[in-house]
Amino acid sequence: MAAKGKARTLIVRLISTAQTGYFYTTQRVRTGPRLSAVKYDPIARSRVLFVESKKTRK
Q1: How many Å separate Cα 9 from the centre of its chain?
Q2: What is the pTM of this model?
Q3: CATH number at residue 18
């Protein structure tokens, strides 16, 4: 039986740099650069920078 290959995409969390605990979940290509985006944080009620961290299991 052949071993499973790695998935082409990763599921990542974009976490707010405003430190409100708010995050978006998205996916990106495994070989691509780390994501960062300016998105709306409803807790801070403004657009802030979100940076990537790996999605953790609960």
Answers
A1: 12
A2: 0.79
A3: 2.20.28.120
